[in-house]
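Write out this protein's structure.
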Amino acid sequence: MAATFLQRFGKKVASYLRLALFMAGVLIGVQVPGFVDQYGKNLEARLLESSQALNQFQADADKFFDGDINKLIAYYQAKNDVVITAGANSITAIATRQAMLKTAWQAFNQSTLAQFQHVALAPISDIRSQVWQSYDYLIVLKPIAIGIGLVFGILLAMVLDVLVALIVMLGRRGKTVQKVI
């Protein structure tokens, strides 16, 4: 009698745990589209900022070097003035950053799936870190957020079921080994 009660109680607890993990998965999953959106906005802002920083130098390159900023940088680097050479290094850093941001922005904006892939597989680490630090957890109930939330919830519940099945299987196997001995 007591064993039956404990089995029923254990099944109920497992059921509630599965439900709690499902809900946790849903709540985590609905955050993903919001994080991706914030990352995209931050990436765009950084690209605009770097473009503005490079604009004056690009104007000089347009005016004196047929628009080739690399020729402007080479001109600065050829000078025997430490300050001008340092300026060339600064322009190079800004131009390199701007090119990287532009490439990332283009990759990010190919499709909705590309946005998720970019953030998951090839984010710009300083942007991702800043977004992560300043991210406010929100529940935005857009269809994609609901879908991702449900997928996360189901996956977590399935992982729990697999772990429980493995533990039960190992427990039964251990009892079989003890009976044989």
